[in-house]
Structure formats: structure tokens, C-alpha cells
Amino acid sequence: MSLLEIENLSLAIGGTPILQEVELAIAPGEVVGLVGESGSGKSMTALTIMRLLPHLARADGRVTFDGIDLLAASEDQMCTLRGDDIGMVFQEPMTALNPVKTIGEQVAEGIRWHTKAGRAEAEERARKMLDRVGLPGTKFPLSRYPHELSGGQRQRVVIAIACALKPKLLIADEPTTALDVVLQAQILDLLRDLVSENRMGLLLISHDLAVVTEMSDRLTILRRGEVMEAGDTARTLSAQHHPYTRELALASMHVPARPKTHQAGSAKPLLEVEGVSRAYPGRRMSLFRPAQPVRAVDNVSLTIEPAQSVALVGRSGCGKSTLARMILALDKPTAGAIRFRGEVITGKAEAALKPARRDMQVVFQDPYGSFDPRQKVEKLVAEPLHLLEKQPTRAERREMVAHALDEVGLGARDMDKYPHEFSGGQRQRLSIARAIITRPKLVVADEPVSALDVSIRAQILDLFAELNQKLGIAYLFITHDLTVARAMSDEVLVMHEGKIVERGRTADILDNPRSEAAQALVAAAPDLHRAIARRMQEQG
Amino acid sequence: MTMRVDLPEETLAGVLAKAFGNRSFLIGFVITLLVAAVALLSFVWTPYDVTRLVIADKALAPAAAHWFGTDHFGRDILSMIMVGARNSIAVALVAVGIGMGVGVPLGAFAAARGGIADEALMRVNDLVFAFPALLSAIMITAIFGPGAVNAIIAIGIFNIPVFARVARAGALAIWPREFILAARAAGKGMTQISVEHILPNIATLLLVQGTIQFALGILAEAGLSYVGLGAQPPMPSWGRMLFDAQTRMVTAPWMAIFPGMAIVVTVLGLNLLGDGIADILDPKSRRRR
Amino acid sequence: MTAYLLKRLIIAASTLVLASMVVFAVMEILPGDPARLMLGFNAGADQVEQLRNQMGLNAPLVPRYLHWAGGLLSLDFGRSYTYSVPVIDLVRERVVVSLPLALIALALSTIIAVPVGVFSASRQGRAGDALAMGAAQLGVAVPNFWFALMLIYLFAVWLRLVPAGGFPGWGAGIWPAVKSLLLPAVALALPQAAILARVARSALIEVLNEDYIRTARAKGLPYRAVLWRHALRNAMIPVLTILGLQFAFLLAGTIIIENVFYLPGLGRLVFQAINQRDLIVVESVVMLLVAAVIIVNLLVDFSYAVVDPRLRGRQ
User: Fold this and answer.
1) Which of A102, A173, A371, C292 has the most CB atoms lying inside 10 A of its own CB?
2) Beta-carbon separation of B179 and A365 below 8 A
């Protein structure tokens, strides 16, 4: 018998349909993956089960949990179920905990509420639970506050809260999306263990096909509120009967074509970074001891040749983005020198940087935050033209913007629109158009596809590859995602705690990592091929 | 303290359509327009001449001839309220202008520059905020003598740190955004970025604060006039009318009731307008749509 | 934690010093000779000169400032020009009116505003919320001195429940004294309460949209429990900020309100002193009020640290 059964569920918020005729079932001890791109209604399905939907939401159909009709249950009934029989883990560990309460209070609170246990007993159980999720009492006393923990540690606390009373069903909504791959692997392992220990049912919601494949027995693929395909994970993904399933699988493994590969050592270096460090003033631990500076980047050297595509990979907080900003002359190194086309750019005045800036542009991660919402596309894409020696006339400018838009697959008509009229993928195209309008030699791309859905991400990677081939632009790709590194780069630099720990040809490093940091990254990276193969093997 | 600034993503037509569907905005807008119209009308027409004293008609209760009654010199209260609106609006408007004109560039500069400039501005802000505004206004007018101009200066000075603070907080929330980094990568300098990207994005924030300060300015002007430090007779002003009414509360309460209501309605209108603007431009209210 | 508190303390102290310089400088540039004022216009020039020397008015600026500021620290404000008594005595007999008035008003406004804010936030968008916020919107627009006049008309003239003004002194007993402060306190408190209730409501609504509220609800806590246990403490921070600012407003408000009710407080004192050009009284009272504002804001800063563990740093 199913633990959770969703039948014919439809949901509308303020008249807008969100879910249509969704079916889903979870048996005790079973892991079911719910996969879909943004806007597919995954999270809303979870919130419907929890009955934590926003106002004006209307759900029809049946959701049965353990014999209880959840859609008909009273709020009091739901309160006894939530946290006791159904636990939930959320996406954003940084904001999921109350900043003014200790982690002990927050874990014990649910225990006390549901079991009427006394404070001491509840704290005792909270302690055990935190030990279980990997936060031992010696290092993480109950009196810790959330701000004293890292993102991964906070997510462990959230899991402790959700699992404290050994719920029959755990719902995890993108539990690792905000974490880097190494933390992701750790959290997924923890979830897997907790599920098998307590015979919990797990509804794992994710946009990442590889993660879901690794974790779940069965999966349901959702698109625009409708179930596309559902079934056994291995069989569904190997057969790929449904066209959307095939589309998703292909996009997840997409490698853009790059016929001309770069030959290392073939030219004079374009960018040379020599012994660069960046220290920040540290936090004062005591009034009478000076603060220890924190070295975000520590004596880093690297070179990039013309038309070469280099990936800088590393865990979050390893100093990748700080390094990128220094290369772009948006931040000043505390030591070392950066040379671009043989000229030193560190410590130069803004006016003297113009020629270098012209040849070095940037694409950011967030397609929503990269544009001033108050300006039209023409002005936004044309912004770097400010760097030209001779300012173009209005007509020339429009001509150049139109050309750049055409190169990234957008039309000249788009010039008079505002950025909010574009989708995430289109905005990333705009971002690239802005970066190439001055015909730069180097583009620094900081996680340029990690905020995009897989199908869009494949298209944007293709665009990057095409521009590299056609215009000979060199790339510095900053990413924590090894599939992007593998798809896009000739060489990989592995960064760890501010230092470059390994460098080499992409295939060599990803297939045969030597440094510990690179090994950890490779081992933790989810890989759809491998995951399907493993599943098939397990099932014979 | 950090501040969240949500960037609006709307076209003018969309904003206008929403504005006229927003109750706060609509009521506030109509009241504000009405008050402004009455003030303008008073330049060309009032029911009675406010400079003529008709002792025979003194302290008449509200009636058909004098809707709001007359004061102790026989002047028509309605006419005086109409003329008083000019004074209130002028003082508050110029004071907001002073506050914005000086405060916004200061705040934007401090946010862009950071470091010592920022710290210095914040300390000066702390200093000004330490002086209870009305007390200082009383001191300023006491030093330079009472009068509408000095009232404007006194209120205006205390608007400066308010706008500096709002502009700084708004700008600080926008500076770390990626589109600012992109502008810097395009070689734009601090001033250019402030003018092209920062100011347009905090404009709505400043507009909302502007209506709040406008309303506070009207209250402050009334307070100063009430203690005799604002506009001087024979120029009618709402605060001064209340002062005259105070000793006659028992015999002629209408002398106090109507000017006070004029203040309440005007301030209410401005506050509703500000609330409405904030509502319309707040993406959170849009998300609920 | 100490680092945060120390920083706030240093900022408060330096603000206080700067403020004293500003007050001193303003009084310096004021027209009018205090010695001439004290002696009257019939006094001879040499007499005036002698008094100026006696009062230390002929000393250079810096020593004069230091002398004055040093006096402030030991509560020696000098002698009033018009009353010829130590300023501290004048202040002492007035502060027992103004301080209770401001405190009663502050307490009243908090007691009214916070429950109204919570009520409104928890019924966001419903009739109760609309009604409460409509009243608050009106309250914000009412000038306190006009409100005071209306209160006098209603309660003193019409209903004859309380005196229309004046202060019997604390010697007349606690109740009569408090009774005469009641209307002024209400007149001061209600407009402030309206502002505070609006701030409390919007702070609470903002907090209720945070992710951790959802986490708490996913634990099985009912909405009310989440509101009281999780939301309220987080919403306290903006409320405390406004409370600090309101203290300054209330102090300034007392100046006018005391004039409406004929209360012998600091506000009346400062007014009379301005009219009589008794500058030493003016600068003393201003300095005292400024110090009160700075100290209250320092207390607010300290209370942030109590509410928000992030300010306390690592233990």
C-alpha cells in the first residue's frame, strides 16, 4: 500500500493553473524523484502535500497520506502531521533557519511540540539528532546560532529538524541546489542513510536528472504542471520513450561541438597572472589581538593563451570569483601582478585601463541581476562601446548592437525592449552580446549557465562554443560544475582554499585527478551516464 | 543596517494602469490635487478678504454666510484656511527640495565612495539626528527671528540627513549588483554609474520618502507657526490659527476644529499618496497578483 | 560582543562631544551680550565689562568651551542670566514634569502600538487589519498639539473629567499629578502609536514571508505559535529603531504640548529662556535633551545585541 498517493491533483493560484492532473505515489521506504525545469510545478506539489500553499491557491483531486485525505484535513490535523509524520527540507539553507534562535532550540522545538517532552528530554533528543546528521556536540553545541554555521552545516540542521521525529515521509525540495558538488554528495548520502534507517518515504525534488537518477527508485517527470512520464528510474531513462524525457536526458549530457581544439604553447600568452594574492581584513576574535587577515586568493599564477578555453573549477568559497574580479580589474590584488597582452594592469588608473577593458569582457551568473531594469537593450548592450577611442554615432551604435544581437541569436527588433521582457536564457544571450560587442580577446564567464534550466543551458554552451570557434575568443570559465568544464574547456585549473592545486588538459584531470581537491570534486560530481549504468547494473 | 531594494521592472503604461486601481494612491492623489487646487484658487478668489477685519462679525459660529465661522477679528475661517494652504505647501515643498537637493547627492556619494567619506557622513547624520528636530527648528528661528523663510530653512536642514540616509541605503543595496559590475567592466566611473544606474533605480524610493517628508514638513510648519515662530501675521497660517483658537476653545471651538482638520486632511492625503506609490512599485505586491 | 558595544559607546560619546561643540558654537554667534542683559540697559560700560570678566566671557574661545563642557560633566551649567540662580536648580524642578510626561507617553504608545501591529499583521488584508490601519493612517496625520486642543475640549471643557491644564506639583500627591499629565501624555502618545503600529505591522509581515517561518510551520507549529515564537522577536529590530527615534520626537513634542497644557516643564523653560534671551538656560536644556536622545539611542543599539545574536559575534 502506498504511503502517499496523489491522484488527479490540479492546482490553481488566483485563477492561474499551476498543476494539472498530477499523479504520484510513494511507498514506505521508497525514494521517488520529481524532476522538472523551473516553473514545472515541482515545489507547488510539495507545498500542496504540506498544505503550506500561498493564499488564493485552490487544489482539487485527492492527496492521501497514510489513509488521511490531506486536502480535506483540518488545519489542526495538518499541524499534528507536519513535522511529526511528514518532514520537509528546503532549498535555501542560508535563510531556512531563524537567525535569533539557537540550533538546539530549533531542533528541540518540534520534538517538544509533538511529544510534549520536557525541555531536558527534548534537548537530549535534539543532541542525538544533530550528532546523527554529522554535527557532533563537541564542535556544534546546542547553543550555536545559525550564523555561526556554513551553508552545508545549516542544511544538516534543517534535515535534523525535519527528521527529528522519524517521519514516515520526507519531502526534500532541491535540498542541494544551493550547495557545491562536494557538499551535495555529502547531503545526499546523509538523506539516503536516514531513509534506509527509518524506512522513510522520500520525495526528492530536483532539476538535476543526474542527482535524481543516483537517488531514486522511481521518478516522475513534470513539465508545465503536467506529468510527462513516470516509472522506474533506470528503465525510464534508458528507454526514453517520451520525447521530453529524451530532450532532458540529451540536454543534461550535452557537449557542444568544437572542431578546432586549442594547441597549448602555440602562441604568446594573452593573460598572465603572477603570484597574485588577495587578503581581506579578518574578523576580530578579541579586543586585544589584531585580526588575522583572511587570504581569499593565495599566490596564484596562471596563463591563458589566445583562443584558449580554460575552466577554473573549485568548491564554493575557494576564491574563484575573487580571482576573476582581480583579472577584470574590478578588485585590487594585495600582492602579485596581472599582465594582459604583455601589459601590467594591476594598480593602473581607470583611464589607463580602457584599452585592456575593451579586450576583456565579462558574463555573470545571474541573468536577472546582470541588467539595469531601467534601461533598454540598446543602451545595455552598447554599454562597453563607451570604451572605444572614437565614440560611434547613434546610427553606428544601433548597427553594432544589431550585429551583436544577431550573433547571439537574437534579432535587431529586441533592441527597444526592456530586459524583463526576456526569458532567463535570452537574457544570458544579451549578456553575451554585451560582452562581445567590443570584439574582446578574452571573456571571463562566472558560472554563466548554473542558473539556467538544462535545455537552455545546452543552447548557451553551444553559443559559447560557436563564438570561440568563429571569433577566436579565449574564455576563462569559472564553474563548480564539472560537466560544464568538460564540455567547454581545453584546460582545467583546480582551485582549493585560495590556491591553484592542479592544472592540466581537461580530459586528463577529470579522468585522472591527482590532487585531493580534484579527486573530491570528480568523485562528488553527479554524472547521468554513470548513474544510469549503475542503476541498470544493480537491477541486473 | 542593510536595506532591500527591489528593482521595479515596469513600463510607464503598466504603472499608470495599476496606479488607478490602487485605492490608497487614488484617494491620496485626489486629496493632494484638491489641496493644491484650493491653494492656487486662493490667489485669485476667496469667499472673503482675509486682510479685512470686521469686528462686528467676530467669532460667528458656522452658518451659511461663513461655512466654517469667523475668528476673533471677524475674518472668514474658510478663506483663511484657503490662503493658509499656500503657506503650508510652499514651506514644506521647499524644505523637501532642500533636503533632496543636498541629501541625495551626499548619500549617493557616500555609498559610491565608501570608507572615510561614508563614515564621516554617517557620523554627521548621527549628530543631526541627536538634535530633536523641532527643538532645533525652534532654536534656529529663535536665533534668526521668526518667519516663513527661516521656518523653511529650519525644516529643510533636518530633511537633509533623512534623504542622505535613504539615498545611501538604497545605493548601497544596488552597488553590489552584477549590472553595476558589468558597468564597471565597461569602464564607467563612479559618477557616471551613480547618475546612469543608481539614481534611476532609487528614484521611486526617494519619491516615497519625499511624500513622507512633505507631510512631516506640513506638520512641522504648523507646529512652528503654532508657537509663533512660523509665518507672521497678517499672513494666515494653519498653525497660527490654532494658536489664536487656543484661548477661545470654550467660546469658539470652530476656530480650532477647522484649521486642524485642514492639516489632518492634507497630511492624510500625502501619506496615502506615498503609501500608494510604495504599493504600486513594490514588486512584492506584484508577486501576489 | 564587547567589540560591538564598545564601538557603539565610542560613537555615542563622540557624537555627544560634537553636539556640545555645535551647541556652544551656535550660542557664540548669537547676538546679544549676556552681561548687558543681566545688568539692564542702564548699567555703565565699565560695569558690564567687569561682569563680563567675572563671567569669563572675555576668555579665549577654547578655554571657555572647555570650562563650559567640564561644568556640564559635573552638572554645573552655570547661573541663569535672568533668574540669577544655578541653571541646574531650574532644570531639576522642571525635569520632574517633562521626564515623567515623556516616559508615560512612550509607554502608552508602545502598549497601544505593538498589540495593534501584531493584530493587523496576523489578519493581513482582512477587515480588522483595514480598520486598524485606517485608524493608524489617520493618527499619523494628526498634529499632536491640535489633538491636545481637541482632548481638552472633550475631556476638560465638556466632560470635566480632568483639569484643562496646569500642574499641581508632585507634592500634591501622586494621583493629582499623574492625572494632570494624563491628557498631555495621550496627546503625545497617540500619533506616535499610529506610526509605531504601522512599523510593527510591516516589519512583522516582512518577517512572516521569510523562509524560516515556513521551516517553523513545517515543524507542525500552528500559525499563532509561529507568530509569537519566531516572527515577533525578529520583527523587534525595526520596532526598536523607531522607538529610539520616537524618543527624540516625544522630547520635542513635550516642548509644544507643555505650552498647550501650561505644564511647568523643560519645554516651557526653554521657551521662556528664548524669549528672555537667557542663553545659558537654552544651551543647557538643549544639551540635556540632546544627551538624553544620544543615551536612548545607545540603549537601543545595546538592545539590538540582546535581540540579534549576529551582532554578538562568536562566543
Assistant:
1) A371
2) no
Q: Which three cell numbers stand for residue B216?
A: 512631516
Q: Is C79 among the domain residues?
A: no
Q: Which of A369, A375, A384 sits opposite B186 (nearest CB)?
A: A384
Of the candidates C249, C256, C263, the one whose C-alpha atom is nearest the C-alpha of residue C292 is C249
Closest Cβ opposite residue B201 in set A362, A372, A383: A372
Contact B212, B282 (CB under 8 A): no
Query: Which tens digit of pLDDT belongs to each residue from A478-529?
Result: 998 888 899 889 999 999 999 999 999 999 999 999 999 999 999 999 888 8
Contact check, Cβ <8 Å, C252/B123: no
| Domains in chain C, number | 2
Neighbours of chain A (3+ CB pairs under 8 A): B, C
From chain B, pick out residues whose CB is under 8 angstroms from the CB of C18: 123, 127
Contact of B151 with B141, CB cutoff 8 Å = yes
Interface test with A, best of C124, C212, C315 (most A CBs within 10 A): C212
Coil, strand or helix at C172: helix
Angle between helices B254-281 and C127-141 (to 10 degrees): 120
Whether residues C66 and C124 share a domain: the answer is: no
Residues C200 and C120 occupy one common structural domain? yes
Sign, CA torsion C167/C169/C174/C175:
negative
> Measured between alpha carbons, how far is residue A141 from residues A112, A153, A285, B126 in Å?
19, 13, 19, 39
Across the interface, of C11, C146, C286, the residue whose CB is closest to B135 is: C286
Q: What is the 3-state secondary structure (H, E, C) of C222-281?
A: CHHHHHHHHHHHHHHHHHHHHHHHHHHHHHHHHHHHHHHHCCCCHHHHHHHHHHCCCHHH
Q: Which CATH class is domain A271-279+292-531?
A: alpha beta
Strand partners for A271: A304, A340
Per 3-state DSSP, chain C is made up of helix, strand and coil in percentages (nearest 5) of 80, 0, 20
C-alpha cell at B115: 570608507
Give residue C55's domain range.
Answer: 2-73
The pLDDT score that the predictor gives to residue C38 is: 66
**Length reported for chain C:** 315
pLDDT tens-digit series, residues B101-131: 999 999 999 999 988 989 898 888 888 888 8
**Residues of B (231-250) whose Cβ lies below 8 Å from C:** 242, 245-246, 249-250
What residue of B is the nearest CA neighbor of C282? B139
Report the C-alpha gap between A177 and A453 in whole angstroms.
Answer: 12
| Predicted-complex ipTM score | 0.86
The C-alpha of C243 sits at a distance from chain A's nearest C-alpha, in angstroms, of 20
Mean pLDDT on A243-259: 88
B120 touches chain C (CB under 8 A): no
Query: The pTM is what?
Result: 0.86
The answer to whether residues C92 and C68 belong to one domain is: no
**A365-407, pLDDT tens digit by residue?**
887 888 998 899 999 999 999 899 888 999 999 999 999 999 9
Pick the CATH number of A4-252 from 2.102.10.10, 3.30.230.10, 3.40.50.300, 3.60.10.10: 3.40.50.300
Rounding to the nearest 10 degrees, give the CA dihedral for residues B15, A426, A179, A122.
30
Q: Does C315 score more than 80 pLDDT?
A: no
